[in-house]
Automatic annotation (TrEMBL):
Gene: pcrB
Species for this entry: Oceanobacillus sojae
UniProt keyword Nucleotide-binding, yes or no: no
Descriptive protein name: Heptaprenylglyceryl phosphate synthase
UniProt function note: Prenyltransferase that catalyzes in vivo the transfer of the heptaprenyl moiety of heptaprenyl pyrophosphate (HepPP; 35 carbon atoms) to the C3 hydroxyl of sn-glycerol-1-phosphate (G1P), producing heptaprenylglyceryl phosphate (HepGP). This reaction is an ether-bond-formation step in the biosynthesis of archaea-type G1P-based membrane lipids found in Bacillales.
Keyword Phosphoprotein in record: no
Enzyme nomenclature, EC number: 2.5.1.n9
Protein keywords: Lipid biosynthesis, Lipid metabolism, Magnesium, Metal-binding, Phospholipid biosynthesis, Phospholipid metabolism, Transferase
GO biological process: glycerophospholipid biosynthetic process
Family per similarity comment: Belongs to the GGGP/HepGP synthase family. Group I subfamily.
Pathway field: Membrane lipid metabolism; glycerophospholipid metabolism
Binding-site residues for sn-glycerol 1-phosphate, renumbered to this chain: K11, Y158, V159, E160, Y161, S162, G163, G188, G208, N209
Quaternary structure annotation from Swiss-Prot or TrEMBL: Homodimer.
Single GO MF descriptor: heptaprenylglyceryl phosphate synthase activity
Gene3D superfamilies according to UniProt: FMN-linked oxidoreductases
Length: 228
């Protein structure tokens, strides 16, 4: 299935433990893809461990969302590269990425690399603090979405509330700004009802932390959005 048609993804954090039994459930859940990514303590060992355990028995597409160069490795189906649009520091918007492109340009397969315009809206999130973000108003978020699509022509705009369930009205208004650029929503989805509610506005939803806190419920988010 084409990335543009994905509706549901699970995000596994290489810094967190998951048993083989739970990993099998996540991979066989019917989700469209597994994203491997996190903010802190993302190591090459952690990334390779997850990749090899997923590949050993499963066909689900696997994406590396790159958070640092040390943990970059071949072998993934796709690579997602965040550009943190609401960071106060240009390095997180484009400089780190520009330097990495300079280094890896000969290895980059363009059909496998997707740049994501991130807008991080939870000030308590590690990613918000790590990338020195500014909390935008709804109209600012909409303007970032406009820029993602019409200025930078990015394939993905990611409304990130990592750790908390976000504001559906913000997501609805942002979606109205977008046409070609896909809207990803992530943050605080724990129940099938929340998954369904956010998916009414976003093109795809991402479920992360609840894999580790209540897997049984997290697994139900797949059917909630794929059987709509
Ligand atoms: C060698 C090889 C295989 C080459 C292949 C070619 C290729 C793909 C090249 C890519 C080159 C390139 C452009 C790389 C980019 C490198 C890079 C370091 C980019 C920086 C991205 C960035 C600014 C990351 C900051 C953090 C961030 C936004 C992370 C996103 C994930 C996220 C928000 C996770 C949620 O956090 P979590 O850890 O879950 O938080 P909690 O624990 O609180 O839940
Ligand atoms: O961990 P949660 O809060 O589900 O968020 C998912 C994802 O958007 C994190 O990057
Ligand atoms: Mg997390």
């Amino acid at each position: 299935m084409n990335i543009n048609e994905w509706k549901h993804m699970f995000k596994l954090d290489p810094a967190k433990e998951i048993s083989d039994e739970d990993l099998d459930k996540v991979c066989e859940s019917g989700t469209d893809a597994i994203i491997v990514g996190g903010t802190d303590d993302v190591t090459l060992d952690g990334v390779l461990d997850l990749l090899s355990r997923i590949r050993r028995a499963h066909m689900v597409p696997v994406v590396l969302e790159i958070s640092n160069e040390e943990a970059l490795t071949p072998g993934f189906d796709y690579y997602f590269v965040p550009l943190v649009l609401n960071s106060k520091e240009k390095k997180y918007v484009m400089d780190i990425q520009q330097k990495a492109i300079k280094e890896y340009i000969d290895m980059m397969e363009y059909s496998e690399v997707y740049f994501e315009g991130y807008c991080i809206l939870n000030p308590e999130a590690k990613a918000f603090q790590h990338t020195n973000c500014e909390l935008p108003e709804t109209d600012d978020v909409k303007a970032y979405a406009y820029m993602a699509e019409h200025v930078f022509h990015l394939p993905i705009f990611y409304v990130e509330y990592s750790g908390i369930y976000g504001d559906t009205e913000v997501v609805r208004e942002v979606k109205a700004e977008l046409d070609k650029t896909k809207l990803f929503y992530g943050g605080g989805i724990e129940t099938p009802e929340q998954a369904k509610e956010m998916k009414e506005h976003a093109d795809a939803i991402i479920v992360g932390n609840s894999i580790y806190t209540n897997l049984k419920q997290a697994l139900k988010t797949v059917d909630a959005v794929k059987r709509e």
